[in-house]
Amino acid sequence: MIYAASPTENVYIFLLSRALTPSTTLAKKGWRLGLELLHHTDASLPSRAQTQLIKITCPDPSSLSEEGSSASHSRARLDHTISLAQQVVNARTLSLVGAAPLRARISSAAQRYRTDSFRLLRLLRGAPNSDLKGNLKVRRLQHEEECENPEPEPYDALSYNWGPQEGHKFIEIIESSNVYPMPIGPNLDAALRQFRSEHEEVFLWVDALCIDQSNLKEKGVQIPLMRYIYNHAQCVRVWLGGEADGSSHAMDFVEGCLDLSDFDKRIVNVVESPHWAALSALIRRPWFTRRWIIQEVGLAKEAVVHCGDKHIEWRKFASVITMLARAQPQLRKLFRESAGFKNHPDYLGDLSELGAIRLADLTDNLFRRMSDRTITGRHFTLEALMSSLGAFEASEPKDVLYAILWLANDAHPVAKSADTVIEQSLTVPLEDTPTLSPVAMSFPEDATFQATFPLRTDSDPKSDAGADDLRPPDSTQRARALSEQSRKTQFEMTVTAPMSELDRVAQSTVGGSVIDAKATLRRSSQSHDEPQSQKLPVLPQIVTAMTQQTSPNRPRRLSVRSAKDDKERKQAAGDHLRRRLPKIKKGRIVVDYGKEILEVYKDFLELAISQSKSIDILCMPWAPTDQTLPSWIPQMNRNAFGLTSSGVYRRVNADPLVKRPGHLGRAPKPYDAARGRPANWMIPKDGRSIFVEGMVLDKIKQREKPAWDGIIPDQWMQAVGWDDQKHSPPERFWRTLVGNIDSAGNAAPIHWEIACKYAFAQRAHGGSIRTSDLLLDCPSTVSEFLERVQCVVWSRRLAKLEHLGEESLCLAPGKAKKGDFICILYGCSVPVVLRPYINGIAAAKRISCQHAECPTRQTSQSAERTKVHYEFIGECYVHGMMGGEAFNEKRNRTDYKIFDVR
Question: Is the predicted pLDDT of residue 683 greater than 90, yes or no?
Answer without folding.
Answer: yes
